[in-house]
Structures are given as structure tokens and as C-alpha cells.
Amino acid sequence: MSLLAIHELSVDYALGGGSLRAVDSVSLEVERGESVGVVGESGCGKTTLGLAIPLLLPDNATIPQGSIQLNGEELVGLSEEAMRRHRWTDVAFIFQGAMNALNPVQRVDRQIREAIRAHEPTTTKDEADDRVLSLLDLVGIAPSRARSYPHEFSGGMRQRAMIAMSLACQPSLLIADEPTTALDVISQAQILALLASLQRRESLSLLMISHDLAAIKRVCGRLLVMYAGIVVESGPTRLLLGHGIRDAQAAHPYTQALIRSHPDLQGERQLAEGLTGHPPDLSRPMVGCRFADRCPKAEDRCRMIAPVPVTLAPGHLASCHLLEAT
Amino acid sequence: MSLTEIVQETEGESRRSRPGLARELWHDRMGRAGIIMAIVMLLIIGAGPVILPFNAQAFGTSAASILQGPSRADWLGTTELGQDVFREFLIGGRISLYVGISATIIAIVLGAGLGLISGYYGGWRDTVLMRFTDFFLVLPTLPLIIVLAALFGQSILVTSLVIGLTSWPQTARIIRSQVLSLRERPLVMRICSMGARDVRIMGKHILPNVAPLILANLVLVLSGSILAQAALAFLGLGDPVQVSWGTMLHNAFDSGAMSAGAWWYVLTPGAGIVALVLAFSLMGHALDRVLNPLRRGRP
Q1: Between A242 and A246, where is the model more confident?
Q2: What CATH number matches the domain at A4-90+171-323, 3.40.50.300, 3.30.1490.190, 3.30.450.180, 3.40.50.150?
Q3: Per residue in B110-122, pLDDT tens?
Q4: Residue B249's domain spans which residues?
Q5: Does A48 lie at the interface with B, CB-CB under 8 angstroms?
Q6: How far apart are CA A306 and CA B267, in angstroms?
Q7: What is the rounded distance in angstroms from the CA atom of residue A207 to the CA atom of residue A52?
Q8: Which residues 209-248 of chain A have a CB within 8 Å of chain B?
């Protein structure tokens, strides 16, 4: 049984009168000790998908269909009070811009201790303190810095402190939403190396949401590509992205376009190609393939009929008419 | 370079901590003046009556001892009853300060509490609470205090309650607006994702973040309350038994000290009120300048 099994999940946002389907029938599984990446442009439903798992969606969001099972337990429809017991102990979340998620007027060690003691009330202050120090050590923050205020940390350190905090209650699943955005490249490298090593050493299950293919490539074993609220392609990261543009085996035109929009450091000099246009307006009904308007290879049928996922290799699925066996 | 090496290298670059609040206040000219004045006034009010006790029964025995100007025996002259003005001034500060502080506690607890709830929950609670606040905000405070004090009596307790219950709306408004912005920060989302309940989020995380704002407001409400108490007592709505600076002014006015040219009787309590109110106002404005992000280029 998978640790996390999402089946046909949809999320709607109510918007003054109408509504918008931000996530449309997404299915996804994360095995124990596996790391899965979700990529896509802004506004394609990545964050909404992430927030839906611990039921942290904004008030105007609803889940009209689908199921989210964590450790075999259904989360959709769970009361706030029941969900509260799972938060942080079963599923922890590193937010987009998490380095601003520390309380500016409390010392870092106290904030991590609060997380431990709130969930395990029997822990004494000394035990909790020991755990705080070992957690900070795990993310490379010296014990002497534990009693600092967040503003005394650099951005990267704050992000690492957040990662330490997310591990405070030994969650089985860690969801990281853009964990490296807004950091400089050195800090990004640190955070990614840290996440990758933690994930391997602690056999953590990680769901990493990012628009950065390179980041996903460093950390995640499997990759989901989202576009306009649906998963257009999924498969092993190594297979989909390869080592560079030339041996990347991504099949969906959208994934290929994403890959081409990044410069390839190892391969020949080649101009990175940007993707033109915008993702479609999700509040309007959609016919056919959602990517058709921006797809260079779009045919007539692409605009008429929505494609269904095709299995290209074991574990490699893509939804595109051009890949269907003719 | 390994991860730990990179980490150790970047460890040193973290920023220095900013100086403490008291220090920043001290470096502000208004703030420093306020602090010094407040300390002097608190010393006078606290230690004065112990050193020079006031005896209300020490009436003058002859016409020659009433409303007398400053002399060696009575440093700041005598009252219409022949009592020592300076000694009465020393004891009178206690009531002014006592009413000021108790009214401030009531106003701040109410204002901060309502502001916090209103800003954090939003929605209908916010609408209801803020219309309620607006109602109190537009009421002319002094006439309301006068009416309430006249209705419910003249004890210190009533005066404190009446002033406290009419001074909270500004605080509620200010705290609410700050909480509205705090609520949207990633901080609140994070604590929520950790499974915290609303009470913990508000009490342990939002309240400490608005504490400086509460402090700045507290000092301003305090000076307002002291002034309001003086106004009430001057109008004869203070506690007639417990002498305060306002009561002294009232008595001076009633006994015709003003027309008799007994300046010492009028100026002494007046100066006390001005000094105390000014001390807290200066501190309040300095705190506002130090803490208000709009007035300082601090992130």
C-alpha cells in the first residue's frame, strides 16, 4: 500500500459567482521512502494540490470529488479536529517562502520545541531541547546558533531551520512547496543537497513542488508534469529529463517545451527556447487537449477530443494524441 | 565542497541583532525626555507622601492661615482650609495615577482583545465588532464620561471603569489592522499546518507580534486616562474623599482661589497633570516613531 494515494482528486475555487477548477482529476501515489516531484508553470495547480493533502486549502476552495489516502486513511471529508491530529506528525509542509514563516519575535529553538511539545505533551523540556539541537545539527546549524532569532539567520539558514522544524515530529510525508525559490544559487544547492540526503537517510517520503526542473532532477526519483490542473505526463525523472536535452525522453510536447526552455550546460551551445502564450483560463469550460493552443504539433483532433493517458514505458505515462498508437 | 563546509562558510554572515527597544527609545530625543519626566514624576508620586505626609485634618486655625502664599512652613502655600498645598499635591498624584493605570488596563485588554479577534477571524465577527467599535469611536468621549460618572457615582472604581470603557476603540482599530496583515503571512499558515488551534495561533504567535504596538498604545491611552480623570474631578465628578490633582483644581476653583490670586493653589496641581500627561505622551509618540514601520525604514 502506498503511503499517499490520491485518486481522481479535483479542487474547485469559488470566485465571485463562478468557479474555477484548479486541480482536475489528478491521481498520484507516493510510496514509502520515495520522492516525487511536481512541475509546471505558475497557476497550473501545483500548490493547490499540495495544500489539498493536509486539507489546508483556503476557505473558498472545495473538493468536489476524489480521495486522498494517507497510510490507508481517507483524509477528504475529515473534520478540522480530526485532521489536526495528522498534521505535522504524519504530514509536514514546507511552504512557499517558508523562510518567512518563522515567528520573528521568538527564538528558533523555542519554535521547534513548541512543535515537538504541542504534539508530544509528555516530552520534557530537556528532552525536547536535545531533539531540537539534533534536528538543527541534521540541517547543518550549529548548536550555538539555536538560540538565535530568525532575523539573525541568513535566508538559507532560515530555510534549513524550517526543514528542521518540519522533521520535528518525524512525519512520514513531507510536502515541500517551492523550497528553493527566493534563495541564491548557493543556498539553493545546499537546500537541495540537504533534502536529497535527508530523504535517503531518513527514508522520508517527499513530495516536492517546483517550477525548477533542475531542482526536481536533483531530489526526485519520479516526476509529474502538471498543466492547467491536470497531469499531462508522469514517469521516472531520469528517464524523462535524462542528462541533458538530447537524451531526455519526455514525450509530451509540454514537458519537451519545459525542458527546452532551460539552457543545457553540458550539451552543445544552444539557445534556450521560451514557451509562448499563457496557460488557458480555467474558469471556462475546456474542450480537447488543454495544451493544444500552445502546442507546436497540435492537430485538429487535439482541439476536439481530450487525450487519455498512454503508457509509453513501465511507469511512464503521457496524455497526448500524438503518442497514441495509430 | 561538502554540504557542511558550505554551511559553515555561510554561517558567519548572519546579521547582527538590532538594539533593544529601551535603547532605541533612549536615543530618541522625545523618548528620552519622556522617560526622564516619567521617572521623576513616579518618584515624586511614590516617595513624596512618605517623606512629607499629608494630613487632611491639619486645618488652619485662623483666617491668617488660609490661602496663604508660599512660606517656609508651607512651601507652596495653603488651601482654602489652611492645608499645605505641596503635601496635598504629593498625595494627589496617587489617585491620578491609580485611576489612569486601572482605566488603561481595562481599555487595553478590551481594545487589544477585540482587535485581535476581529482581525484574525474576519467575516461577520469582524463586521459586528468593528461597527460596535465605530459606534464608540464617534461618540464624543468626554460628555459620555461625564454622563456615566454622574449616573453611577463618584468612586475611584466607577471613574476607572467609565474612562476604561470609553478609551478602547482606537486601540482596537489599530490592533485589528495590524492583525489583518499578520494573518496573511506565511507564519500563520505554517502554524496552522502544524495543527495549532486558533487560540494558540492568536495568543502565542500573533499577540507577541503586535505587543510593541500595544505598548505604544498603552502609553498614549495612559496619558489620555490621566487627563480624563483630572477633567472629571475638576468638574466635581471625582471621589470627594480621595484627593486628586483634579479635585484640588476643583476645590481651588470653588473656593475662589483663582480670583483671590492664589496662583500656587491652581498652578501646582495643574503642573502635576501637565507633567505626567506630557511624560507619557512623549514616550508614546517616541515609541510610535521607533516601532511604526511606516515612519522607520525597517523591514
Answers
A1: A242
A2: 3.40.50.300
A3: 999 999 998 888 8
A4: 21-49+75-291
A5: no
A6: 89
A7: 13
A8: none
